[in-house]
Each structure stands twice: as structure tokens, then as C-alpha cells.
Recover the amino acids of this structure.
């Protein structure tokens, strides 16, 4: 079970760290439950194999025992629920202003990333993978839209995803803590070329971001969106 | 109140309570609240019908205390007296009939017609009506003349089941009162 | 719909035995034959869906597109899900219920035998309509089994295959509702004297709750299909936001059906396990009433959790659905612990049916525990729509459903046919199935955590390959195990050991009649004084084991 459930990838965002911790908490409790229950099953099968024709004592139940194993799971799930709510508040917290506002539009079958307040825009296609460039350590607020069907914005290492639903604006914050190039992909099945709906997130230093943005803005003004 | 009505009313209670809670906590989201309330009203309606029907049938009315006990899931008690089953309690089986197959085919053709055109809808509807007619006629025949007369070939007394009709040795005189 | 109750004295012994030919099956109104038809049809659908699953695994064994193009792949996994969820999983248990429920409650047939036949035929025609979409221009639907609008609307998917998909499933939905009315009425109205609700076998309880769920959930499915069909063919606009429609509406109604569907599938399976474990532990079920209330707890909660499939939409109230989903663990936990309580200090025989039931507990435990993870919105954000979810619900569906189904087949095959399935082949079946199954889905948890999305024909990340290869190997091993089962069936139905009426020392009434039962089910019925009438009958005359309860003052339903 420990191996089966495994661990999530280390998160690269501030929000993702809360999820990572929560997942591990669930994992430990789950491992204990699994070991205890399957241990009991295996033990009773070995210990109480049929040896003779004598009928075992015909017990019909035990109210106190049954109450115990009703209450224990109830307590466990309530505890898990409390931790869930704490982590959820961290993940979904949108108080405070964002440093970078990006409008991400999903379409069949790629992505468009528009940088609000600048003319910068990145448009991809199934053949050319778009790259969302963001600065490290700053709050990025993504406004997620869909141009046609339901898609889903997912970067595995942020431990977060959100559906892009036509007619709906979905807002969420990401604060990257590490620079690097991260894989992202649409996870909501969206038609023929769904597996090709890939993008990358390039997290760079503040200075690099500014110079990239300036170059993109010039290109955008010249009417040739980069890829 | 019978166990059956109790089951339905409990489902109903859950639907109504969950629907009301959901209505408030979800900030008045209508769709889920309506669905849950429908889940509450549907079985509740069926449960009330069952209770009503039992009243009409008469018989011994359950005391209020008994009804509460049953609702809380406390075991029902055996009525006094013998209750072994007589053969006629099993009811009568209907004869084999082709009409359910024909009626289903009608429904299937009718629905498929919604894709391919009106002619198929009419064809399916015709088949469905014809099958329903045949079905009702068969039911009527069996109801009026009884199971045995409706059978075209008379059943022979020898053609009983082949396997041992009594799987266990006869229990002898019943042990209960 | 007329009932078949006639105010005439019946002469069950005088019924002529009907010939077993094809006309007999086409015209039958016997619940046992209809049950067999259901089981065979569902199993054929299962084999077809299984072949499609192997095709999927074949494609995913290495990155890139090898065996087929993207469109074909999308059609294959869509039809795999459709066949398995809609046309196999919910129907095979209906078949078992059809066969067993009247026997378990001491009735001669279901309440409406002709309508029962009709629901089977509607189901068959529904299957045929869905399958016919393979042969129309454009091929079958390629929108995933959930068919989220607007992807499934005419604008994005033109083929007739999609319309046939909707119509076929709508017909199956009608069949389901008709069958549910029938079985619920049967259980409410046809029980023999003495068979109170709280003496019914747990399998019958499972079927009752399952059919009630069908009754309340399938209308939602019918509604959503009607909306989709109107949008596709008659210009209605329910899901297009530019006309004031709402795409989220589809998800809401679909999952209002979709989550109870999971329990529609799994509750009768719980029922099977509840029958098998006490028999092979030679003890009564531990905590009978708790088990019944757990059924209802699960069923009720299942209607309150639909939006946990929609956490990632950002448009649902998370805490409500999270706590409701987490709470399902409680009744489920009661069931698992009560099964252990039943085995505890028992006298356990490891027959194939029992092995399958034990396999069920372990595998279902993993599926259930990972379900707890998914009930937590932040974790769900991370793993939703990845292979983690695929692994989770296959642990529930394949693990839960198939282990339970095979347990039921091994357990009741003697009752259906009069012969035993081979235990030796059964052990091989179990071993290959257990290894193959875990190999298939175990590694999908890992690759899902690593971020591999579901429903992709191709992946570019090389490190996902090894898990996918193992998964494919496991899938083919699972395929082999099913072939072993078919071989076992083929051999045993001809040359299997004669079973007699009660090969396992069963508890419920079906073990009191002959194998296979006569057309009117019983020549003789024992009195019912507890939830184990067949046990009481075997031990009649022994006041310790089988007390006769006629005194209202003395009714200790539990010891």
C-alpha cells in the first residue's frame, strides 16, 4: 500500500506545499488502516481455518464492538476533514493583489496565454507547444477561460488543476518557488487531439521575466504573437 | 406502518434534510437542491401511499409505539400462530408469451426513429401498439379462463419436475404450534 | 400493466416442463431464465469491453502512436467505458437479482413476470443499438463515457454514432427503471409468510437498495440524455453559453446519476459477499442489522456526493461534498469490520467463492481508501483526471465488481445448473486474476501521481513507460484469467461434479429447493424464523441452533 499510494511529486509552488503535506498525512493514516484491516483478514483466515465438522459458536453480533468501529472511522474522517479544510483555504486563498495577471484561454487543441496590462501574448498549436513564462516568487493570478469545450489546466508539479469551462471565468493563484521548466497538459478529454494539448511553464528570475515580457510586448505590438 | 413504508420514509427524510441543508450551505444553488428535494418527495409519496393502502385494507392497526419502534429499526415480532406455506400461496405463473419481446422491439424501433426519420417512428409505434394489444389480450384471456384453460395443450400429470421434489427428508409433523 | 395474481388455486405440480429451445427463451416469463439471459448478455458485453480494454493497454504500452490513430483510440476507450459501466456492470447484478431474489424470499416469480421479460428485451435492444454505432459512418462516439457537453453536442461531434449511443442508453435506462419497479415490488409484496424485511438475506437487501437507487438515479440520466438529444437533433440550446445555456448543467445532472451508479453497481456485490462469507465461515453474519443500515447509509449518502466529481470545476461548494464523501467511509467501514467479525472464530473453508470474497475485501479496501484521498478537494485538484483516478475506480469497479461477481458465480453456479464449477481451475482463475489485476492497476496509482492524464492515446514523457508496460502485461494476464473462467464454465457445465441441492450448507431459501429449481421455484417451503431459514431447516428440532419463535415476548433477533 505504501508503495501503491506512493508520494506526490515535490511541489514547486507555495500552494502545492499544503497539498503535499495533506497528501502525506492521508497516506500515513491510510497505510495504518490498510495494514490493520488486511492483517485482521489474513489472521482470521489462517487462524480459523476449518479443522473439523464442529459448528463454531453462532454469534450474531456485538453492539459494543460495532459501535466502536462506527465511531473510530467517524473520528478519523472528521479529523481528515479539518485538515482538508485548512489545506483547501491555503490552496484557494486569493486575498491580496497578484503581481502578474495572466488570461489563459484553452481551445481545441492548445493554449493562449495573454499577459494582462501588456500586449504580450503566447499562442500555441498542437504542433508547437506554447510556453507560459512567469517570474519566480511572485503571485501569478490565472484567469482561465475556454473558447469551445471543457478543458482542464494542469501542471503536475503545482499539484493543482482547474477546469476551463466555456462561459465561465475561473480564477486561481500560483506562486512558484523554484525556477525551471515544467510540463503542463489538458486533463479533461476534449476531442480528437486531446493528448497533444500540452504546454510548458517556464519559471524564471524577475530580471529575465522583465526582459522576456518587453520582447514579447514589442512582438505583440508588431502583430506577430510568439509561440 | 410497515417496514416497507419505513424504508421509503427514511430515504425521503434524508432527501428533504439534505436538500434543505444543501440549499443553504451551497449559497442557494438550485439544481442540486431541487434534485435532493425530489429524492425526498418521491419515496415519501410512495411511502405514504403504502401506509394509506394498509389503512384501507384494515387489519390490526399498529399502535403508535410499535410504529415508532419500527421506524427506529427495532426488530419486528412474529405474529402468533402457524405460518407454514401452503402450495397456493406461491401464486400462479403466467404462460410464456412473445409480446414483451415484440413491445420492446417496438420501443427500440420508435426511439431509433428519432434519429433516422418519421417513418421509423411510425413503424415502431405501430409495432408497439400491436404488441400492447396482443399483450393485454393474453392477460385478459388468462385472467378470465384461468391459467389451465388458457393453456392450449393440457398439462399431463406425469410431466412434473424431474428432480427430487423434496430436497430434505420430510420434516414430519410441524414442530411449532 | 396487469399483475399475474389470479384468485385461483394454483396447481404448481401440474405445470408442464417447457422445452429449453430458442422459442422457449424468446417467450419466457420465468424469472430464472430471464436472469440467465441477463447474465449471459452482460457477460458477452463484458468480454467485448474487455477486448477494448486490451486494445487500450496495447496502445499505451509505449509512447507514441503505434496500433491506431487518435480517433480510433478515442472511440475504443469511450466504448470500453460505455459497455462496462452502462451495459455490463449494472446489468449483471440485475441478472443475479432476477434469478435469486424470488428464490431467497420464497416467491414463485417476480411481481410482474411479463414486464420482467420486457425489461430484459429492452436492455438487449439497447445494447444492440449502442453496438450498431460501430457500423455507421463516422464510427461510434468518441467523447468518453461521461460525454461532457459541449464536446458531445452536434457542433463538436457530428457522427450518428453519438445519437445511437444516446438512444441505446436511453432504452437501457427505461429497461432499468422498469426492472427496478418490478424487483422493488417483488421484495415488498411477494415475501413468504414469516419472511419479514429484517429476515431477508443480505443479497436481497443489496438488490432492494440497488433497485431503489436505480429508481431514483436513472431518471436523471434519462433527463440528461433527453437534453443532449434535443440539443443535437432539434436545435435546443441547453449547454451553449452563448445562448444562455450552461455547460456545467450537464455535469451536475450527469453526476447526480453518475455517483449513485457506482453504488448501483457495488451494493448487490456487497450482498453477494454478505452471503458467501457466513456460509464458508459457518457462522451467521456478524451484525445483520448494522449491515442493513450500512446499505441505507451508503445509498443515502451516495445522493449527496455527486459534485465530488466536479471539484476541479471551481463551481461547487467544496466542504459539503467533501464531508459527505468522507462520511461514506463510515458505513463502508462497518461492512468490512463486520465481515471480519463474521470470519472471527469461524470455521473457514477456502473455496473459490470464498477466495474471491477475500480478494474482494483486500482490493476493495485499497479502492475505498484511495476514495478517501479523492474526497479531499486539495488532493483531488492534484490527481483528478489522472491515472490515479483511473486506478482508484478500477480498484472499485474491476476489483469490487468482478471479484464479487465471480464469487457469486462460483457460489450459485451449482444452484443454476446442478453442477459444481471446478475448484482446481477456480484456484488458477483466482491466482491469475489477483496477480494480473494488481499488476494492471497498482502502477497506475504511481504514474497518476506523477501526472499522467487519463484518456490520452500518446504520452511524451519517457519515465511513464515502465509503469505502462507493467500495466499492459497485467491486463493481458487478467485476460488469461477470464479465459480460464470460461474454460472452467465450459468443462463444468458438461462434466462438472453433481452438486445436489445444497453443496455449501447455505443459509437462504434457495438452498432448500432443487438445483436447478423447478419452474415455480419450490415444492416445499420451510418455516422462516430467522434470517437463516435453510440453516434452521437443517438443524430443525435442535432448540439451541434453530429456536422456533412464535412467542411475541421472545424474539431475540441477535444473540
Amino acid at each position: 500500500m505504501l508503495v501503491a499510494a506512493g508520494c506526490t511529486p515535490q511541489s514547486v509552488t507555495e500552494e502545492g506545499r499544503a497539498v503535499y503535506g495533506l497528501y502525506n498525512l492521508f497516506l500515513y493514516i491510510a497505510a495504518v488502516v490498510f495494514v490493520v484491516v488486511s492483517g485482521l483478514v489474513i489472521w482470521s483466515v489462517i487462524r480459523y481455518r476449518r479443522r473439523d465438522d464442529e459448528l463454531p459458536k453462532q454469534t450474531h453480533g456485538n453492539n459494543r464492538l460495532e459501535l466502536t468501529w462506527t465511531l473510530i472511522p467517524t473520528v478519523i474522517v472528521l479529523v481528515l476533514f479539518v485538515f482538508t479544510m485548512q489545506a483547501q483555504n491555503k490552496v484557494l486563498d486569493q486575498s491580496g493583489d497578484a503581481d502578474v495577471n495572466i488570461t489563459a484561454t484553452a481551445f481545441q487543441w492548445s493554449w493562449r496565454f495573454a499577459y494582462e496590462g501588456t500586449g504580450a501574448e503566447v499562442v500555441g498549436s498542437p504542433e508547437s507547444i506554447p510556453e507560459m513564462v512567469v517570474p519566480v516568487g511572485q503571485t501569478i493570478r490565472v484567469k482561465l477561460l475556454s473558447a469551445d469545450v471543457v478543458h482542464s489546466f494542469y501542471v503536475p508539479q503545482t499539484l493543482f488543476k482547474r477546469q476551463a469551462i466555456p462561459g465561465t471565468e475561473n480564477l486561481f493563484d500560483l506562486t512558484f518557488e523554484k525556477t525551471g521548466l515544467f510540463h503542463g497538459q489538458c486533463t479533461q478529454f476534449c476531442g480528437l487531439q486531446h493528448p497533444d494539448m500540452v504546454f510548458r511553464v517556464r519559471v524564471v528570475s524577475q530580471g529575465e521575466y522583465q526582459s522576456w515580457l518587453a520582447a514579447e510586448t514589442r512582438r505583440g505590438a508588431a502583430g506577430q504573437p510568439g509561440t | 406502518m410497515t417496514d416497507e413504508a419505513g424504508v421509503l420514509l427514511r430515504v425521503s427524510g434524508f432527501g428533504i434534510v439534505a436538500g434543505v441543508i444543501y440549499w443553504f450551505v451551497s449559497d442557494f444553488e438550485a439544481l442540486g437542491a431541487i434534485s435532493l428535494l425530489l429524492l425526498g418527495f418521491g419515496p415519501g409519496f410512495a411511502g405514504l401511499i403504502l401506509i394509506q393502502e394498509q389503512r384501507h385494507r384494515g387489519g390490526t392497526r399498529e399502535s403508535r409505539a410499535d410504529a415508532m419502534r419500527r421506524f427506529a429499526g427495532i426488530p419486528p415480532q412474529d405474529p402468533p400462530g402457524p405460518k407454514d406455506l401452503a402450495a397456493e400461496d406461491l401464486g400462479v405463473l403466467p404462460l410464456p408469451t412473445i409480446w414483451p419481446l415484440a413491445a420492446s422491439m417496438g420501443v427500440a424501433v420508435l426511439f431509433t426513429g428519432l434519429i433516422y426519420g418519421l417513418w421509423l417512428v411510425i413503424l415502431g409505434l405501430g409495432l408497439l401498439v400491436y404488441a400492447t394489444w396482443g399483450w393485454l389480450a393474453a392477460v385478459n384471456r388468462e385472467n378470465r379462463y384461468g391459467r389451465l384453460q388458457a393453456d392450449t395443450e393440457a398439462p399431463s400429470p406425469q410431466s412434473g419436475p424431474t428432480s427430487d421434489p423434496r430436497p430434505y427428508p420430510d420434516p414430519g409433523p410441524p414442530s411449532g404450534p | 400493466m396487469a399483475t399475474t395474481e389470479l384468485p385461483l388455486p394454483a396447481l404448481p405440480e401440474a405445470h408442464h416442463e417447457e422445452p429449453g429451445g430458442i422459442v422457449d427463451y424468446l417467450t419466457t416469463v420465468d424469472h430464472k431464465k430471464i436472469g440467465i439471459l441477463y447474465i449471459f448478455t452482460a457477460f458477452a458485453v463484458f468480454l467485448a469491453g474487455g477486448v477494448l480494454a486490451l486494445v487500450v493497454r496495447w496502445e499505451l504500452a509505449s509512447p507514441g502512436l503505434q496500433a491506431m490513430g487518435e480517433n480510433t483510440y478515442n472511440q475504443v476507450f469511450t466504448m470500453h467505458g460505455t459497455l462496462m459501466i452502462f451495459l455490463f456492470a449494472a446489468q449483471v447484478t440485475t441478472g443475479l437479482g432476477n434469478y435469486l431474489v424470488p428464490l431467497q424470499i420464497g416467491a414463485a416469480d417476480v411481481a410482474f413476470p411479463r414486464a420482467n421479460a420486457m425489461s430484459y428485451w429492452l436492455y438487449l435492444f439497447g445494447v444492440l443499438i449502442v453496438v450498431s454505432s460501430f457500423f455507421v459512418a463516422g464510427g461510434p462516439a468518441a467523447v468518453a463515457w461521461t460525454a461532457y457537453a459541449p464536446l458531445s453536442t452536434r457542433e463538436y461531434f457530428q457522427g450518428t454514432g453519438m445519437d445511437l449511443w444516446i438512444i441505446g442508453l436511453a432504452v437501457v435506462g427505461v429497461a432499468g427503471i422498469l426492472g427496478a419497479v418490478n424487483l422493488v415490488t417483488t421484495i415488498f409484496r411477494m415475501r413468504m409468510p414469516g419472511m419479514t424485511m429484517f429476515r431477508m438475506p443480505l443479497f436481497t437487501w443489496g438488490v432492494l437498495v440497488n433497485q431503489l437507487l436505480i429508481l431514483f438515479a436513472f431518471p436523471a440520466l434519462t433527463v440528461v440524455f433527453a437534453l443532449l438529444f434535443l440539443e443535437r437533433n432539434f436545435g435546443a440550446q441547453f449547454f451553449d453559453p452563448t445562448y444562455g445555456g450552461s455547460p456545467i448543467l450537464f455535469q451536475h445532472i450527469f453526476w447526480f446519476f453518475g455517483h449513485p451508479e457506482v453504488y448501483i453497481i457495488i451494493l448487490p456485490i456487497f450482498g453477494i459477499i454478505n452471503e458467501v462469507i457466513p456460509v464458508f465461515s459457518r457462522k451467521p453474519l456478524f451484525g445483520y442489522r448494522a449491515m442493513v443500515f450500512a446499505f441505507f447509509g451508503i445509498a443515502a449518502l451516495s445522493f449527496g456526493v455527486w459534485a465530488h466529481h466536479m471539484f476541479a470545476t471551481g463551481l461547487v461548494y467544496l466542504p459539503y461534498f467533501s464531508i459527505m464523501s468522507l462520511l461514506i467511509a463510515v458505513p463502508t467501514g462497518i461492512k468490512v469490520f463486520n465481515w471480519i467479525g463474521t470470519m472471527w472464530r469461524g470455521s473457514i473453508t477456502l473455496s473459490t467463492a470464498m477466495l474471491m470474497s477475500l480478494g474482494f475485501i483486500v482490493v476493495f479496501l485499497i479502492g475505498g481508501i484511495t476514495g478517501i484521498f479523492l474526497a479531499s478537494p486539495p488532493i483531488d485538484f492534484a490527481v483528478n483526471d489522472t491515472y490515479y483516478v483511473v486506478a482508484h475506480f478500477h480498484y472499485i469497479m474491476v476489483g469490487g465488481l468482478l471479484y464479487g461477481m465471480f464469487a457469486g458465480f462460483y457460489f450459485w453456479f451449482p444452484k443454476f445448473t446442478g453442477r459444481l464449477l471446478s475448484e482446481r481451475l477456480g484456484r488458477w482463475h483466482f491466482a491469475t486474476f489477483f496477480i494480473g489485476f494488481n499488476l494492471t492497476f497498482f502502477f497506475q496509482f504511481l504514474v497518476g501521481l506523477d501526472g499522467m492524464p487519463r484518456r490520452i492515446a500518446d504520452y511524451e514523457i519517457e519515465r511513464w513507460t515502465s509503469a505502462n508496460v507493467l500495466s499492459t502485461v497485467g491486463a493481458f494476464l487478467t485476460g488469461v484469467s477470464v479465459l480460464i473462467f470460461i474454460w472452467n464454465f465450459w468443462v463444468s457445465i458438461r462434466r462438472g461434479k453433481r452438486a445436489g441441492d445444497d453443496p455449501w450448507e447455505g443459509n437462504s431459501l434457495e438452498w432448500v429447493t432443487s438445483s436447478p429449481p423447478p419452474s415455480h421455484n419450490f415444492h416445499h417451503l420451510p418455516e422462516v424464523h430467522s434470517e437463516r431459514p435453510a440453516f434452521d431447516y437443517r438443524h430443525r428440532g435442535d432448540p439451541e441452533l434453530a429456536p422456533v419463535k412464535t412467542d411475541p415476548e421472545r424474539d431475540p433477533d441477535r444473540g
